[in-house]
Design brief:
The protein is α+β, with helices and mostly antiparallel strands and 83 residues long. The protein has a single domain, classed as GMP Synthetase, Chain A, domain 3, CATH 3.30.300.90. 35% of the residues lie in helices and 23% in strands. It has a three-stranded mixed sheet. Helix 1 packs across helix 2. The chain is globular, with a radius of gyration of 12 Å. The two termini are 24 Å apart. The relative contact order is 0.21.
Length: 83
């Protein structure tokens, strides 16, 4: 599994989402997902929404995923060097 495949799965599974995924070794990844559907949800619920898009790949093909899940407003308020 590669970063572009994970990005595609997340963006297909969360309509309107924008994902950035990085991972050099093919099993450990970092992702930042920006999605309006996260509004009003706690971080754990947001992470579950992302994990649901990846299904059984989590814990299998994807050994670890470090995740930031933000609404568009939260992403816009972040300093530009953190994006």
């Amino acid at each position: 599994m590669d970063a572009s495949s994970i990005k595609a799965l997340i963006e297909q599974g969360l309509p309107g989402a924008r994902a950035e995924v990085r991972g050099a070794d093919g099993v450990h990844f970092e992702a930042e997902v920006v999605c309006e559907a996260f509004a009003g949800k706690l971080p754990l619920a947001r992470h579950r929404m992302v994990y649901a898009t990846l299904g059984d790949r989590m814990g299998g093909e994807i050994h670890a995923l470090s995740l930031k899940a933000l609404t568009p407003d939260e992403a816009a308020r972040r300093p530009s060097q953190q994006r």
